[in-house]
Design brief:
mainly alpha; 0% strand; 10 helices; Serine Threonine Protein Phosphatase 5, Tetratricopeptide repeat; 2 domains
């Protein structure tokens, strides 16, 4: 799957399914679907990824594995946001967010990104900004300048939609300072382009998680 050979992977996955069923390993079965969802996401096959994450979360719920369930819900909800299924994604992300202590920091980064994109897509700009602020704080805890800069960049994009030029420049200047001299030339170039031509930003992003 990771090499993009979905047809060749299918019989191996079916054999793995049969073995896991035969040996009564439901946790491994749930993990197999979770990993399949990640592979489909990497291949940009979002509908297939959604189906795999949905199957994985259903199995983890049956097993009472709350930590894995919440992680799967983050991925499922984010995939649904990318598919434009905002109304359906909202309760899934809300449930995942009830147990932030169960989520690893990188999962929380993705959760807050999904929340921000969902709220932005439904016109709730203040809630989108709050989600991005939470994402920035987690990035700061991780000492991940790219996540921090990307969160600020997205805040600038949001403020640009609200025609708040001062806030746009402030957030972009802070984003630029986060990654200055750290070896992210493409990200720095995107920030500079946004600063020079805010009306043409097109919602560019620095990183995806």
């Amino acid at each position: 799957m990771a090499c993009g050979q979905a047809r060749e992977a299918k019989p191996w996955f079916r054999r793995a399914q049969a073995l896991l069923r035969a040996h009564g390993l439901p946790e491994d079965f749930a993990l197999a679907y979770f990993n399949l969802g990640l592979d489909f996401g990497w291949m940009k096959k979002l509908a297939l990824g959604k189906a795999a994450f949905r199957r994985s979360t259903a199995l983890y719920r049956q097993l009472g594995r709350k930590e894995e369930l919440r992680q799967g819900q983050v991925l499922l909800g984010y995939t649904m946001v990318l598919l434009g299924e905002l109304d359906a994604a909202l309760p899934i992300l809300m449930e995942a967010g009830r147990d932030l202590e169960l989520l690893a920091p990188f999962d929380r980064v993705l959760l807050h990104l999904a929340e921000a994109e969902l709220h932005l897509g439904q016109g709730r700009f203040a809630m989108a900004e709050e989600a991005l602020a939470r994402r920035f704080r987690v990035g700061s805890e991780l000492e991940d300048p790219k996540v921090m800069a990307d969160s600020l960049y997205r805040m600038a994009y949001l403020k640009n939609r609200l025609r708040d030029d001062w806030a746009v420049r402030t957030f972009l200047t802070e984003a630029q300072a986060c990654i200055a001299g750290l070896g992210y030339p493409e990200a720095e170039a995107r920030i500079m382009t946004f600063m020079q031509h805010p009306g043409e930003s097109g919602g560019l992003r620095i990183c995806s998680r």
